[in-house]
């Protein structure tokens, strides 16, 4: 192998090593790609969670618009309302001893 060939091979190897580091560590390299993939996966998971919440809220809205029994139940549970013909009986407090 001549001196010229060795120099050419050395330059080629240095170029390939530099290219390898550039691909790995550059601004849009593999490190950045992995970071973006993790961020994408987190956003997909959050999106799925929000889609589930939207579905449950949509079902609740539909029931509030169309289901009188559900409306009555919500009024009783969340607002403490009673029907017209009902009475609330409160027990007397026991005297403190």
Write a short abstract of this structure.
The chain is an all-alpha fold.
Structure write-up:
By secondary structure, the chain is mainly alpha-helical. It has one domain (3-79). Helix content is 74%, strand content 0%. The chain contains 3 helices and no strands.
Secondary-structure topology with pairs:
Elements: H1 3-25, H2 30-66, H3 68-79
Order of helices and strands: HHH
The chain-level mean pLDDT equals: 89
Helix content range: over 70%
**Coarse structural class:** mainly alpha
N→C terminal distance: 108 Å
As a whole number of angstroms, the C-alpha radius of gyration is: 35 Å
Number of domains: 1
Described by strand count, sense and barrel closure, the largest sheet is:
none
Task: Please give the count of helices.
Answer: 3
pLDDT under 50 segments (min length 5)?
A: none
Q: How would the global form be characterised?
A: rod-shaped
Taken as a percent bin, the fraction of beta residues is under 5%
Number of strands: 0
């Amino acid at each position: 192998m001549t001196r010229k060939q060795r120099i050419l091979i050395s330059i080629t190897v240095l170029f390939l090593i530099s290219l390898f580091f550039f691909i790995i560590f550059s601004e849009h390299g593999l490190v950045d790609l992995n970071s973006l993939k993790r961020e994408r996966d987190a956003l997909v998971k959050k999106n799925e969670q929000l889609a589930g919440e939207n579905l449950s809220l949509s079902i609740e809205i539909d029931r509030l618009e169309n289901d009188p029994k559900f409306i009555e139940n919500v009024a009783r549970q969340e607002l403490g309302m009673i029907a017209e013909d009902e009475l609330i009986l409160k027990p007397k407090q026991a005297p403190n001893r």
